[in-house]
Write a structure and sequence with these properties.
globular, binds magnesium ion, alpha/beta, 6 strands, binds 3-methylbut-3-enyl trihydrogen diphosphate
């Protein structure tokens, strides 16, 4: 571990990851269908991306749909997929204009084919952009990601292409969907729930966690700013003794 990581934490986070929770409750509280909560949630995504650009956060990861969310009703899953489709169609030009690089992590095999194509196009089109790396986790599960990586490494060992001795933290991380993306410094979850729900399990080993009661559709730039300010007050130790800092 390099010494830079042991300094008291006044720096801004390089990577903020957000579990966007509470769309359903937001809609319920207004007597509206859950879909409208998701639609409002997409507006919060726009504000959040604009906020990240303004605050010059280099990496943002948004948890949009978990591996376990496939268990929801067909109707809700379809609504979420059409929202994602429309979101990709309507935002990509704007992303590109603003220098945003889009990447999607998760199991694409379960996604509708046209969405897979939209994602591939968007990733390709924005690949050289540098203002902000926006990662969207769709059909994503941390355990599934870790298991798939272990399986690929095991296959490489079985094929005689990899020595088990060469499997370490770095080579394992290089096999994850987030290869090349720094670990999140800060993980925010909205809606008052205090759990990770299978999000970035490997990558969040030393992330600072920040829980906010607001429901995702109400989240705005000031909430992002408040989370970053709180992060800057925290002291990260990575297992070292406090007095050594
Ligand atoms: C988050 O909101 C969006 C997704 C998980 C797709 P929810 O849909 O989980 O909303 P609540 O938790 O039921 O309020
Ligand atoms: C986590 O929220 C997944 C996303 C925000 C996309 P859930 O609403 O699915 O999580 P649980 O079921 O409350 O743990
Ligand atoms: Mg939820």
């Amino acid at each position: 571990m390099d010494d830079a990581r042991l300094t008291p934490n006044q720096a801004s986070p390089r990577h903020v990851a957000i579990i966007m929770d509470g769309n359903g409750r937001w809609a319920n509280a207004r007597g509206l269908p859950r879909t409208l909560g998701h639609r409002q949630g997409a507006e919060a995504v726009r504000r959040c991306v604009a906020g990240a650009l303004e605050l010059q956060i280099p990496f943002i990861t948004l948890f949009g749909f978990s591996s376990e969310n496939w268990r929801r009703s067909t109707r809700e899953v379809e609504d979420l997929m059409s929202l994602l489709r429309r979101y990709l169609q309507s935002e990509i030009a704007e992303f590109h204009k603003n220098g945003i690089r889009l990447r999607v992590i998760g199991d694409r095999e379960r996604l509708p084919q046209d969405i897979v194509r939209l994602i591939a196009d968007a990733e390709q089109r924005t690949a050289e952009n540098q203002a902000l790396d926006l990662v969207i986790a769709i059909s994503y599960g941390g355990r599934q990601e870790i298991a798939a990586t272990a399986r690929r490494l095991a296959e490489a060992v079985a094929a005689g292409e990899l020595d088990p001795e060469d499997i370490d933290e770095d080579s394992f991380a290089a096999g994850l969907l987030t290869a090349g993306i720094p670990d999140p410094d800060l993980v925010i979850r909205t809606s008052g729930e205090q759990r990770l729900s299978n999000f970035l399990l490997w990558q969040s080993a030393y992330s600072e966690l920040f829980f906010v009661d607001k429901l995702w559709p109400d989240f705005d730039k000031s909430d992002l700013e408040a989370a970053v300010a709180e992060f800057r007050r925290r002291e990260r130790r990575y297992g070292a003794a406090a007095e050594s800092l």
